[in-house]
Design brief:
It is a single chain. With about 300 residues, the chain is mainly alpha-helical. The protein has twelve helices and no strands. It is globular.
Length: about 300
């Protein structure tokens, strides 16, 4: 079996698992696929294939969550406006920068975002425009360089207090715009090369199978526990990828570079312990824990007006 065939087979398995997660929790395809796939491919080859697949996924997710759009579109409008310049900047950077440094930036940005999300970080946000415009621009740069936006979007929407239907609709609306505009930017910059087109043929069947399976299975699982386990896997993968790219760029030597992965695993295990300790609290203890959590949130509230 050639190296390309092996890489494509591994990518198909990764994409199938990531699509299963996306079908279950509404996001996660690119944030799970990209960190592992970057071991075999560069962002410049991988991103165009991922973006085209994400356009299809995001339109599907938006279609099944249309009922939530009227209640959330005003909140996400500043983000959508901010996305446009960010995508232009990020797409140009992808076409211009050295692939190793793009990988380094991808992992370095993702790791703290995933760990913040795993820690359940909460800072209530009230001013939509003041936060949305710069957030949208930074998100546009991040997405067009990495094709990943789920972790920062999930943090923002959770801190804005969106309920389940609003969360899914807002997420789908933003991701439809970012993936579609990014695909157009990639096309204009000539990033759709033959190798990227070949990867699409690997990704699309995995998505068609994985998303319906994930949507079906999640009905029988505890969604929050499943989501938290997926975040742990993602954090460990990103920690491994960052360690590898530190060696690739000669920023650290092996085996010291793998201390980054080790530190990530230790921190995530601690966060997992906290999560399951709270999640397994007795019914009598849960209201008290929720009350203490809300009191802490109120004491740390940052009102951005």
């Amino acid at each position: 079996m050639s190296s390309f065939d092996l890489a494509a087979l591994v990518l198909a398995g990764i994409a199938l698992s990531a699509a299963f997660v996306n079908g279950a929790i509404g996001y996660g395809f690119s944030s799970l696929t990209v960190p592992l796939a970057l071991v075999f491919y560069t962002n410049r080859v991988l991103n165009p294939a991922i973006v085209v697949v994400e356009v299809l996924i995001n339109f599907y997710v938006l279609f099944i969550n249309l009922k939530g759009v009227p209640s959330v579109w005003r909140r996400v409008m500043p983000i959508l406006i901010g996305l446009l310049p960010g995508i232009a900047i990020g797409s140009f950077a992808l076409a211009s920068l050295q692939p190793g440094w793009i990988k380094f930036c991808t992992y370095t940005v993702l790791l703290p975002l995933i760990l913040l999300q795993a820690a359940g970080w909460r800072r209530p946000i009230e001013s939509t425009w003041m936060v949305g415009l710069p957030f949208g621009s930074m998100l546009g740069v991040l997405y067009s360089v990495t094709t990943i936006s789920g972790p920062p979007l999930a943090i923002l929407f959770n801190n804005q207090g969106l309920v389940k239907n609003e969360f899914r609709a807002g997420l789908a609306l933003v991701r439809v715009v970012e993936s579609t505009v990014t695909a157009v930017a990639y096309y204009k910059l000539g990033l759709f090369i033959q190798e990227s087109n070949n990867l699409m043929l690997v990704l699309i069947p995995s998505v068609l199978v994985g998303i319906p399976c994930g949507a079906y299975v999640i009905r029988r699982l505890d969604a929050e526990t499943f989501r938290r386990i997926c975040m742990s896997f993602d954090a460990w993968v990103v920690g491994f990828g960052l360690s590898r790219v530190l060696i690739e760029l000669n920023l650290m030597q092996s085996p010291w570079a793998y201390s980054v992965m080790g530190a990530t695993i230790v921190l995530d295990l601690y966060l997992l312990y906290i999560f399951f300790t709270a999640h397994r609290a007795s019914p009598a203890e849960r209201p008290q824990m929720a009350e203490r959590s809300q009191a802490l949130d109120r004491s740390q509230t940052v009102e951005l007006r």
